[in-house]
Write a structure and sequence with these properties.
With 481 residues, the chain is an alpha/beta fold. The protein has 13 helices and 24 strands.
Length: 481
């Protein structure tokens, strides 16, 4: 594994429990065999606990409690699963030496044949993609059209994060558009495309889809599983909420179905609330996609490693940075990926490998993907500011690979929409993506690395490839409904 991968790797730790001081409060998750009633809530309050989330759909709660009171908490009747909240982080890193000021045709869409699907008339219209991430920056309208972002249902879930910083669990539900991190912006741009100043727009995988921003990570780029679970349940329950208020599947004003949840985040284990929330979402007909992680040989992150989830590893193109045999920074728009992918695709050495009990499904472009990313939370400056502060960055990570697959899911679901109903479910979509992927065998590739400014060799085995590199055209063409 290359030395610089330490920059990309995420050291994900469980929220402290053992060894903490008696006065330290932690977040603990509980799943019950029955609905959480007033008696349980009173008992929790009596031992000094504060309920952050009540997720009635899965009989789950997240509780802020003193670490020395956890044993008392676990004596409550009817607990079927429990555990501390898990720290989760955005699965990408900035590569600040290589900013850009615009793009036209990007290699990442070309290598998975997205332009072909757009020519067929599919752009994800009618499908919603809930991006559970850091949210959007205040100046997001400078990058995305208002029609592409579903402000009505955008939300923030930061209760566990608020508790961790001792602010009594209070947070602004409108915080989804107060991000200063940029990770959510970059992920969103891959799905729906983005504006380059007022000059032109770069297409996304599914530019006709609507994105629901759901902030579950702090502006520092990390958060807790409890917040992620709350976001998942919220998105999954939108169907029933809209239906009860008079909405219907084809009503553009109401989010009902289909919805894809895209999570470019992960942690070292699957928390109780996350597992039950994912199961609930899938049972509702929601599609769940997540990043495999940037841990290389250490193994996959969760929730991606949980088998029902469609997990995504990161691949690249061997001729990134190379044009006519020479290193060229304009490779990402000036070069076309060959139609024959033999010898053209490599697996990044930091993309998480599949370990026993884990499930890696597919690969997608995750190396050197360009998108808006304002490092300092700055407002969008005019074009004459000459990119100061910088606004468009190459980012690497399975975070970047995940929205490619979420976007392809939207393309397939658009084709599937018939009379307000869909035939696909999570398992069928996963099988479709896997069966139409470009197969990769174990191998190696020598690729130019702009960080070390030298050529490096990536080597991978079967544990790194899943079913191969997703192919948008093959997936859409193969789906018959």
């Amino acid at each position: 594994m290359r030395k610089y991968v330490s920059l990309l790797m995420l050291f994900l730790l469980l929220l402290p429990l053992a060894g903490t001081s008696a006065s330290e409060r932690i977040v603990y998750e509980l799943i019950f065999s029955h609905p959480v009633d007033s008696k349980i809530l009173s008992e929790i309050k009596a031992i000094g606990g504060e309920v952050i989330y009540e997720l009635d759909e899965i009989n789950g709660i997240a509780v802020s409690i003193s670490s020395d009171k956890v044993n008392e908490l676990l004596k409550l009747d009817g607990i079927v699963a429990s555990g501390p909240a898990v720290k989760v982080e955005a699965l990408s890193e900035e590569l600040p030496s290589y900013d850009v000021n615009g793009a036209r045709l990007t290699w990442d869409l070309d290598i998975i044949n997205v332009p072909t699907v757009h020519e067929w008339g599919y752009d994800g219209r009618g499908v919603y993609v809930a991006v559970l991430d850091t949210g959007l920056e205040p100046e997001w309208r400078s990058y995305f059209s208002a029609e592409s972002i579903d402000e009505k249902h955008a939300a923030a879930f930061l209760g566990a994060m608020a508790t961790a910083f001792f602010i009594n669990g209070n947070y602004n539900r409108n915080a989804w558009e107060a991000d200063t991190n940029g990770h959510g912006m970059h992920v969103t741009s891959t799905i729906i495309g983005y504006n380059v100043y007022n000059f032109y727009k770069v297409s996304g995988v599914a530019p006709g889809a609507k994105v629901i921003p759901v902030k579950v990570l702090s502006n520092a780029g990390w958060g807790f599983s409890s917040d992620v679970a709350a976001g998942i349940v919220y998105v999954a329950s939108l169907y029933e909420r809209e239906k009860s208020s008079g909405g219907n599947v084809l009503d553009p004003a109401g989010v009902v179905n289909p919805i894809v949840i895209s999570m470019s985040l992960g942690g070292p284990s699957l928390s109780p609330l996350e597992k039950y929330a994912i199961d609930y979402a899938i049972s509702r007909g929601v599609f769940v996609v997540a990043a495999a992680g940037n841990e290389g040989e250490i193994g996959m992150c969760y929730p991606a490693a949980y088998p029902p989830v469609i997990s995504v590893g990161a691949a690249g193109w061997v001729n990134e940075w190379i044009i006519n045999g020479k290193v060229n920074r304009s490779w990402w728009w000036a070069s076309d990926v060959p139609e024959d992918l033999s010898g053209q695709v490599y697996v990044t050495d930091w993309s998480s490998r599949e370990k026993p009990g884990q499930d890696l499904d597919v690969l997608a472009p995750g190396s050197w993907v360009v998108g808006p990313y304002t490092l300092y939370g700055a407002a969008h400056p005019p074009y004459w500011a000459e990119g100061v502060p910088r606004q468009y960055y190459f980012l690497g990570g399975t975070s970047m690979a995940t929205p490619h697959v979420s976007g392809i899911a939207a393309l397939v679901l658009q084709k599937d929409l018939k009379d307000g109903k869909i035939d696909l479910n999570q398992a069928k979509l996963e099988n479709l993506l896997e069966s139409t992927a470009y197969h990769l065998s174990p191998g190696s590739a020598t690729v130019y690395d702009p960080i070390s400014r030298s050529f490096v060799t990536h080597t991978w085995g079967y544990d790194a490839v899943g079913s191969g590199l997703v192919q948008a055209d093959a997936a859409v063409k193969s789906f018959e409904g």
